[in-house]
Structures are given as structure tokens and as C-alpha cells.
Amino acid sequence: MSGDTGEGTGKGGAVRDVCVIGLGLIGGSVLRAAVSSGRNAWGATASVSDADAAAADGYDAGTDVVEALRRAASSEAVVVLAVPLTAVESVLALVERHAPGCLLTDVTSVKVPVRDAARAVAPSVTFVGGHPMAGTAESSWHAAAAELFAGAAWVTTVEPDTVLAAWQEVATLAVDLGARVVPLGAGTHDETVARISHLPHLLAAVLASVGAAGGPVAAALAAGSFADGTRVAGTRPALVRAMTEGNRTALLPVLDEALGALGAARGSLASTGGLASTIDAGHKAARKLAEHRHAPTTSVRVRLSAPDARDALLAVGERGGYVTAFDGDVALAEVP
Amino acid sequence: MSGDTGEGTGKGGAVRDVCVIGLGLIGGSVLRAAVSSGRNAWGATASVSDADAAAADGYDAGTDVVEALRRAASSEAVVVLAVPLTAVESVLALVERHAPGCLLTDVTSVKVPVRDAARAVAPSVTFVGGHPMAGTAESSWHAAAAELFAGAAWVTTVEPDTVLAAWQEVATLAVDLGARVVPLGAGTHDETVARISHLPHLLAAVLASVGAAGGPVAAALAAGSFADGTRVAGTRPALVRAMTEGNRTALLPVLDEALGALGAARGSLASTGGLASTIDAGHKAARKLAEHRHAPTTSVRVRLSAPDARDALLAVGERGGYVTAFDGDVALAEVP
């Protein structure tokens, strides 16, 4: 347990310890980055190989998840749930039992299902959902890096029942790890990642299959556009299944949008022979997204004790902005 | 007119001069690379800016297409049609009028429509279709480079009525320019590029549109998979329209395959909640394509005067192989 720096919030201004459950790519990187940032941090995982590798690298890590959680409870640590989506419910039950009343966040790729599971399985826990938008192709401790989150977007959820002091603790951890904190509702997060992460994975899978149906000739002629469009089809299927199937509710309407647009292109090509509306719309959309990304930003301050703080935080995220730091209970944000 | 090296075929073993009509990215690169390879070469284009830029760079280039074609006729040059697909028919008519009996090839992205146009509009011309699989995003002389074709696949069509001596002239030019020559039927080419080039462009357009519908939040969260999947949506719409609309017949069934696969994913996600078959198939397909690309090759010799030469060449291309050189009338090929 640290506490001598005087920075951060909660625990009377002390920096919270960090307990990471799950030490794969994301959890391992959280443990590495937390220690690098000067925090007292430890981890536990059911994976013997990840635990051994982390311990061999000099980290406070083991396979006893219950012990790690008990230690978190006694030191008022932030607990970071970094297990695969399919293991979330069972670990939530352990948290509820061994660290009730703790401050819990997660790093999984969907937020509504995890929020609902936390409410159902771990009602004594103060939960704030999180999702760092960084790497999914690798999955072990060996791929973990303290710099993984540098400059990355890290969604932290703001819901009607979110305790803003708890939200600040989680956001401060993300900021300390180098990320830009994007405050969003869980539903907005899930719809957005369906568009910009889960749909791309499904389209890459479809494109790879249709391409491979062209046999060795297709392999011989495939160049830039095909290589780009199929790159993520090389991701481990289990990871892609977990994130897409886990986001079923938000993904279905997005899949329907894509099917509608592709079907419209098909219909237009078959009837008039033209693809102008599909291609022009895609080109304009790509330019619009690039403009959003390169838009100049304005500095905004959100006082978390203000009555409209929740709405003000959500407005930051929904306009494509992000929190970069805290000054007492004021979130300092940049908004396009 | 060159001819002192004794290499190549036709004209009693002399290397043919090259006349390039159209001096954008591909045509300009053909002119640069032909000169670099030691050939006598000139070009003409309706684009004053491309002609001026080529001349300023020291190339024999101008805007008088008719004069360039007459010169090609008198020196028995290979004429390379490098104009946009929409201009092919009108230039074919000029070739038929001013350089009848010449040896003509093209570099456009579809082969059946150009073959049919050549048969209809330029019946006196000896035509061999071609398509170097290199760059489409840029389009002016300024983007042209002699090295554009180094190591690239360059399809040269082999049809029932193809004159193999003419095919060898065109293939020799592609080899001289640094390319791997892939002999294919025009229909196989068009189906294959529909899979590995035209479908990727349409999926990128659809993905960009669905992503942009997520607004500034989508722009803020978009990372690797979305950036990869939408990269070619930045290509000039006119270029994408020309190649996709120009390949309508081959593209429609490929679009239907993609719609079927995406619809099946949607149906499975909605009914069982599972996406295993889509994701596993995509992952296997990506691995299979990578295996094709990295497969060891065997050297094969095809004597163009042999009675089964046409089938032997097509077998090379259809197995993912390519011709690397000629030894007299023997094509030296590598086949996976």
C-alpha cells in the first residue's frame, strides 16, 4: 500500500493500490504500467504460465485470486477485472465474497453485459466499467507492455447510478497509465465498438472466406486492398468470438446497417449498373471521420461535485473528447 | 527503334519499341520503366498536364495520340493502352484506324469487357489483355515510378484465340519491367479481382459509412481494425467506380457470396448467439491464403510452340504460378 505522494483522490487524497485479476495482454499491461507509474500493485490469475512469467519478471503475482482480493479489501485497492468475458461472472462472484465494498473496474470489450452482471452478481461492490482501446491480437503476459495504453482511448462508463468519486478513481488510474479517458454510457460504448471494432472483424472474416474461394489465383493476385481488409482475420478466433458474441444486442442492428448498405450496392449494380452512391458515401464518411480525428480541440473543465457533472462528462465523450488529467475534483478535458 | 541487343522475340528477335497511350500512374510508370529497361519508348495522352510533366522529365511524350499511334505502326511497336476504362473504346477506335495490325495490350482492371471491346472495335489489331496489380490510389504522371512493377503480379490473358507469339511479346515487356507474369483467361481474371480487389473496396465503403454513422465517438474510439478495414475508402471515387462498375458481371455473384456469408452471420447471431462458423471460416481462409503465398515453388518450362502450350500456361496461372523469364520460345515459370 502506497500513499506518500499525496496525489489522486479517495483515501484522503492518497493514490490507491491496484489489484489486477487476470494477467494476459491487458491485465499484464495494467500491472506493469501501474508499477511504472509508482503505484503499489499486485496481480493474480488462474493461468499458471502467466502468473509464473509475471513473477519471473519481478512482479507481485500469483495464482491465488482469493488471497489477492482479500488483500485488495484490506488496503482499499482498486480492483481491475482483466479476465476473458466468459470468466467475468465467476470472478465477480469471488469479488462479492472476498472484497465486498471494494472499488471495481474492468477492461473487457463490452460494457452493458458486464454492468448488468456486476449489478446482479456483485451488488456490494462499487463498479465503474472500463475499456482501454488497445490490442486484441495477442493474449499472454509475454505480450504485455507498460506503454500499451500511451495515448490510447480508455472508455470509463458514466451511468445514472455511477458514483462519481469512484469514477474519478478509475479515470485517474487510466490517466496515470497514459490513456485518454473517454466518459461514455455503457450502451453508447457497446454500439460504438460494434461499429468500429466488431463489424470490421466480421467483414474481415467474410472477405477472407470469399477471397479464399478464389483459390491459389486469388492468393497470387491479392494485394493492398485485400491485405488491409483481411488483416484482423488473423486474430485468434476465441477472442473475436468473445467480443462479438458478447456484444450481440448492440451488434445485431449494426450488422443490419451493413447488410442494408451492401444489399443496396448489390441492387444498384444489378439494376442500373451504378455504385456511385455506395462509393461516394464511403469516401465522404472516411473523410468525415478523418476530420473528426484531426479537429482542433478546446479545453473544458468539469467539476465532479456540480449537479450536472454526469451530463457534462457524457457530453465530453459523446463529442469525441477525452479527459487528460484531474485538478482536485475537476476533470480537465479536451473536446473537438 | 532499338534492336541491337538480340533479346526478346518477334521482329526477328529484336526488342520491340513501346508506345504508351495514357500517362497517368500506370501508363507513366510503363513509359519510365520501359526506358529504364533499355527500350525505345514514347507516350501520348489527352491530359495536357501529364504530357507536359512527362516531357519536362525528359520523356518523349506529347498530346498527339494519332501521331504516336502512326509512329507505332511504322516501327512495329507494342502499343500499351493505359487510359481509364471509360476511354478505352474511343482509343481502340483510334488504334484500329491509325495502327491496324499492331500488337496491342492494355493495363486496365477488367479483362472481359476490354477483350470484347477490342474484338468489336479493333478487329485488325492483335490484342493481348494485361493487368499489372499495382497501385490505384494515385493517378497522375507525378505518382509514376519505374519501380512500380518490381515483383508485382502482371496478368496477361490467354484466350482460345490468343496468338502466343503476341502473348510472349507482351509478357516479355512485363518481365522486362520487373513483374511476375500471371497467364489467365480473361474471365478468371475478372472473377478473381472481383474477390480480392473490388469486393474489398465495396466493404471498405460500407464500413466507413456504418462507422461514420457513429459520429464523433466512433472517430475517437476507432483503432486498428477499423483503420485497416477502411483504408481504401480514401481512394478517388471515380477510380473505384470505374473498376467496380466495369466488372459488373463478375462482381455481382461475388457480392452475393459476401451478402450470403454476412447474412448467415447475422442469422446465427440472432438465433443461437453464435458466430463460430463465420469467424472460424474467416480465420482458416486467411491462413490458407497465407500458406498459398508462402508455398515453395517448382520450376516449370512451357514451350510456346507445343500443341498444349495454351493449357500449360493457364495451368501455371490457375495454380498461383507466374512466368519469370523466356528462353527462346520457352516460358520459365515458378508454380507453387
TrEMBL record, chains A, B:
<dbReference type="InterPro" id="IPR050812">
    <property type="entry name" value="Preph/Arog_dehydrog"/>
</dbReference>
<dbReference type="InterPro" id="IPR036291">
    <property type="entry name" value="NAD(P)-bd_dom_sf"/>
</dbReference>
<keyword id="KW-0560">Oxidoreductase</keyword>
<feature type="domain" description="Prephenate/arogenate dehydrogenase">
    <location>
        <begin position="16"/>
        <end position="300"/>
    </location>
</feature>
<dbReference type="InterPro" id="IPR008927">
    <property type="entry name" value="6-PGluconate_DH-like_C_sf"/>
</dbReference>
<dbReference type="InterPro" id="IPR046826">
    <property type="entry name" value="PDH_N"/>
</dbReference>
<dbReference type="GO" id="GO:0008977">
    <property type="term" value="F:prephenate dehydrogenase (NAD+) activity"/>
</dbReference>
<dbReference type="InterPro" id="IPR003099">
    <property type="entry name" value="Prephen_DH"/>
</dbReference>
<dbReference type="GO" id="GO:0004665">
    <property type="term" value="F:prephenate dehydrogenase (NADP+) activity"/>
</dbReference>
<protein>
    <submittedName>
        <fullName>Prephenate dehydrogenase</fullName>
    </submittedName>
</protein>
<dbReference type="Pfam" id="PF02153">
    <property type="entry name" value="PDH_N"/>
</dbReference>
<comment type="similarity">
    <text>Belongs to the prephenate/arogenate dehydrogenase family.</text>
</comment>
<dbReference type="Pfam" id="PF20463">
    <property type="entry name" value="PDH_C"/>
</dbReference>
<dbReference type="InterPro" id="IPR046825">
    <property type="entry name" value="PDH_C"/>
</dbReference>
<dbReference type="GO" id="GO:0070403">
    <property type="term" value="F:NAD+ binding"/>
</dbReference>
<dbReference type="GO" id="GO:0006571">
    <property type="term" value="P:tyrosine biosynthetic process"/>
</dbReference>
